[in-house]
Amino acid sequence: MIKSPSRTTLLVSATIAVVAIGTLYSCSTSAANDNVLVGNAASKVYVAPGKYDEYYAFFSGGFNGQIMVYGLPSGRLLKFVSVFSQNPETGYGYNEETKPMLQTTYGSIPWDDTHHPELSQTDGVPDGRWLFINGNNTPRVARIDLKTFETTEILQIPNAAGGHASPFTTPNTKYIVSATRFSVPIPNTDVPIDSYKQNFKGTLSFITADQPGKMDIAFQILMPGFNYDLGHAGKGPSDGWFFFTTYNSEQAYQKLELNASQNDKDFIAAVNYRQAEQCVAAGKAKTAPAEYFHNFMDEKSRVARSERKSSVKMLNPQDCPGVVYYLPTPKSPHGVDVDPTGEYIVAGGKLATVIPVHSFSKMLKAIADKQFDAEVQGIPVLKYNSTLAGEVQKPGLGPLHTEFDGKGNAYTSMFISSEIVKWKLGTWQVLDRMPVYYSVGHLMIPGGDSKKPWGKYLVSLNKITKDRYLPTGPELAQSAQLLDITGDKMKMLLDFPTIGEPHYAQAIPADLIKGNSQKFYKLAENSHPFATKAEADGGIRRQGKNVHINMIAIRSHFAPDNLEGVQVGDTVYFHVTNIEQDWDIVHGFGVLGADNAEVIIAPGETRTLRWIPKSTGIYPFYCTDFCSALHQEMQGYVRVSAPGSTVALKANVSERAKSQTARAQALPMHHEAAGAANGSR
Ligand code: RUQ
Ligand code: CUA
Question: Which of 152, 226, 355, 393 has the lowest tally of Cβ within 10 angstroms?
């Protein structure tokens, strides 16, 4: 077989292909280097040691279900924020306090696929209070509090499958949205797949978002069974409207690659959500049964709770005329982006040869003049030319997403031709092009989807990395590239890798966040039911087969640190309170043979590790975070006896309390020195 001619042919053609690709990439790379090497690119991204970056940037972690926080322009990675995925690094989703965050009607889900981070806005401008992000697989939206950089709330979206067009915000964060990517029967029931046209529907969800801890579905709009892809709110004159792209208006349910690419135009759904509010208030929405979970972190106890909800308000556009219009849009549109003035609605048609731009004012006029072509399930379809402001001709191949610089320019990502194209709003002229490496999906300008973009940098979020970094086996990191957009021509400044697939990102001047960043949790306000606020309060308690250990962590010991009386068959809960009240003094806790993950305990909070010892013996536990000069001494032992053993419950609380506190005070700790250095800046 090795010698067969077909194999040889295959090898030869493969070699040719490799050579061709190699040539392509080396050409591209040298072209890139030409761009990079103009002027002072390095100095523009250089952030000196000890200095801060100018922007916080939040990148979706895609299929890692998290968020990565980067500094711009340096591209330095600052933090991972766990959202929909368990994270063994912090214990998120493993410890007892955060487990409820991942609760859904499908059970506890340890993973999701994040796509679109979205900053909260005030009057159409990112304000630095919260970041929202969607879970695409098991439709959910999450709130991240930008004081603590922690996920504080997750809402499941019922009557949906694939939460892709999400969680874009209205200008004052009254609502964030989620549209179903995949249409399914609503409510979801057992039907033949080939009954798609009769039975499958889409939904658009409007979610109240301006009150922390109280996210909920305000209402859903029942839509024809297309795929809903992305969305953006109107602003300024178009405030009160929301625009969603749809594809698969063919309603294909197999081989979509072919069957959903038949129509020359699909649609943008223009939703008048103020009108929807009025119809809901007037009782025109039905109360539909819908099971979903709302999970939120209590601020004082820092324990998450889950509540199950059982119905939503469902509005059928037929019962609320004027609530939705369809704008024909070529072809299989993906992104839909509204310019800073609120007049222009730009679509990125994956298979379109132009970038179509709709005019909001023309749309209102076309509605008033009833310029309708057809109706789809009670939704009027406007005439393409009646809403069209213009088309960008020959933009490149595979337009996906557009952001704005606030100076009248738009920037569109071209997936197939791997470039960013800059064009002028109003004249639709292409002004500049920049090759990017490779296959750009989203692009991001800080505030670039808002009323007031900070139009200094553009980040290209590339799907394919290939030869940009040292090879790391078959799977490479994804790649981001930073461009300077202050001049007429874009300038390439920097490549940096990203982890998971960063579909979209958001960024905001650091000044809007850094002053609010919380340094520790106040111990006095810790209302966790198992909080231990002083060394002398530690102990061990048995409740049937459950053993609760109350423990403190402080540099450089746990108290108690010797525990006896645990038996095989018990479930042990280590409730560890970090009683430090100082910035960046975090302790960790791990115990031999634990089958979950460590817990990381921020100063002032309590975290609980559940542990089921499987055999008798002595089990050490230790601090996992190098917290002090005597971090290696920060350890203890649990004795595990046979079931029914007469070994009494015992915790060495009081003897250790005094001597260790005295010792900790006598030693200078490296974290304190680091803290002082930070404080001096
Ligand atoms: S997607 S690459 Cu936003 Cu999930 Cu466009
Ligand atoms: Cu605490 Cu190391």
Answer: 393
User: Which of 313, 315, 263, 251 has its CA nearest to residue 288?
Assistant: 313
Q: Which tokens in the block code for residue 251?
A: 């309603």
Cβ of residue 168 lying under 6 Å from some atom of ligand 1: no
Helix (H) / strand (E) element for 672: namely helix 670-679
**pLDDT tens, position by position, 594-633:** 999 999 999 999 999 999 999 999 999 999 999 999 999 9
- Ligand showing the shortest atom-to-Cα distance for residue 181: 1
Residues in CB range of 367: below 8 A, 6 or more apart = 322, 325, 380, 382
Q: Which of 230, 336, 403 to mutate to test the pocket of ligand 1 (most atoms within 8 A of CB)?
A: 230
Q: Which runs of E-coded beta strand occur in 324-398?
A: 324-330, 333-338, 344-349, 355-359, 372-376, 379-382, 388-392
Rounded CA gap, 289 and 291, in Å? 7
β partners of residue 76: 71
pTM of the predicted model over 0.70: yes
User: With a 6 A CB cut-off, is 451 part of the ligand 1 pocket?
Assistant: no
Task: Give the 3-state secondary structure of residue 252.
Answer: coil
Kindly state the helix (H) or strand (E) to which residue 34 belongs, with its residue range.
Answer: helix 5-36
Which residues make beta-bridge pairs with 151?
144
Q: How far is the CA of 580 from the centre of ligand 1 (A)?
A: 42
Say if ligand 1 is within 6 A of residue 334 CB.
Answer: yes
Residue 122: how many other CB atoms lie within 10 Å: 13
Query: 316: burial class by Cβ within 10 Å (0-12, 13-18, 19+)?
Result: middle
Residue nearest ligand 1's atom 3 by CA: 503
- Give 601 Cα–ligand 2 centroid separation in angstroms: 10
Amino acid at 125: V
Tens digit of pLDDT for each residue in 575-585?
Answer: 999 999 999 99
Q: Is the CB of residue 602 less than 8 Å from the CB of residue 577?
A: no
The CA-to-CA distance between both ends of the chain, in Å, stands at 69
